[in-house]
Design goal:
heterodimer, A: 244 residues, Rossmann fold, 6-stranded mixed sheet, 3-stranded antiparallel sheet, 8 helices, 27% strand, B: 273 residues, mainly alpha, globular, disordered N terminus
Amino acid sequence: MNAIEVKDLGIKFRLSRFKNTRVKEVLSKVMSKQKLTAQKEHFWALRNLNFELWQGEVLGVIGSNGSGKSTLLRTIGGIYEPDEGSIKVEGSASALLSLGTGFKDDLNGLENIYLNAIILGFTQEEIEANIDDIVAFTELGRFINEPVKNYSSGMKARLGFGIAVHLRREVMLVDEILGVGDFKFRKKSQEKIEELISDDRTVVLVSHSMDSIENFTSKCLWINKGQQMMFGETKEVVRAYLDS
Amino acid sequence: MEGRRREVSGNLQESSILIMGFFSRSYKSILKYLVLGEIKVKYKNRFLGAAWAVIDPLMLMLIYLFLIKFIFQRGGPNYAIELLVGLITYRWFSTSIMASSRSLLSNGKLLQTVKFPYSVLPLSRVLINGVDLLVGFVILFIFVYFYEIPPSWNWLWIPVLLLLEFQFIIASSLIVSIIGVYFRDLLNILTFGVRILLYASPILYGIEQVPEHIQPTYLMLSPLSSLMVSFKNVLIFDKGPSVYLAIFIGLSALLWFIAIYSFRTRKNISKDL
């Protein structure tokens, strides 16, 4: 069964000057009798993407900076609606992008786990069933009752990672998180991700590390400037990418 | 496989996050955790904690009381209560919309990471500021007791008026939260706007002090005036609410229309953050 089905997908962003306008700019435009919405420039962050992913498959997404990898993850996660073409996602996708987003600095670790997980769309029962595992995984000990503002960046990352790997959806979206924390914790999170991947879950992994792409993924998508360069078996795509 | 299937094509409109969202279970729990978390943060880390909810309106009241009663030698016997009821209900509106105006922007990172009904963000601001209102009302009734204002059946209008104000504030907050994404200096404008509204509403003065021949125009043009008059009427003067509330209700309907329309058409707001 197809977990993700992408057909002619296009995502465009407006470049118009109207975005983020300050009053001063509007006034100066009105004065000079320019039309406010005159500049409707846009660019396609993604265009003509076509691929299918089976349930349980792991997709790696590669490409240089600004090629549209994160935009693709957000589209799969439902944050952006397609401007062109279509995307079908079987089940629901949960994001593992930029860990620690949405933490409230003044709340403690435990409270932030609840807040974050609720925002990610999990129910209170789901969280309660997993809370002990999450806390144990983060290795924060008594710091779990300290406000997050006192955490080191590594501790924050661990908290975010703990939430993300324990509360799961059918489709997991992973954006460059394999290098979280110190060596010991990195090893632990590697194992956790391997466990996720060997699971029946569909995973989309964005990474600049060809090692992790080759180790973890079976399919690979290479995009450049929003265009699909190649989609297929990881080995072949990575080789083509490195040769380019 | 569970029945959660997302299928989106280019032109297919997703059902409105705003309308559908309000009643769903996940919407309520996000709202609950946002509000509880924020309240904890707001009051826990301050020296005087929850006392600020009391001190703030009281200080405002004392300032105006001094100004009007002692300097200008004006104001009736129940002026303190007139001030207080006006100030706390006005503050709910002003603080809510100011906080809402930046609510989407300041959570931009979150909105670009997780798909969730983003109208909870302004709505949570309204509820959080509602706590100050409730505390304010406790103080208000302590004053009412000491000023020996007799209880009246008209007090039963108070929850009705608060509900009317509540929905008005939500609609306004939803609108300013969207506008705030596109106009970064909205907050600066609102700071002046709410100040003007304070003086343009019968809060520091009574409606009877407005010249009689311009009273109808005044009540029609000043959006919060009929609400303020009604609060004072039912609480102090043992009268029913102002008939001009009809205009307030009409204005609310218009604001709701704009709010729902703008949330529907801005489904891709995460791209603009």
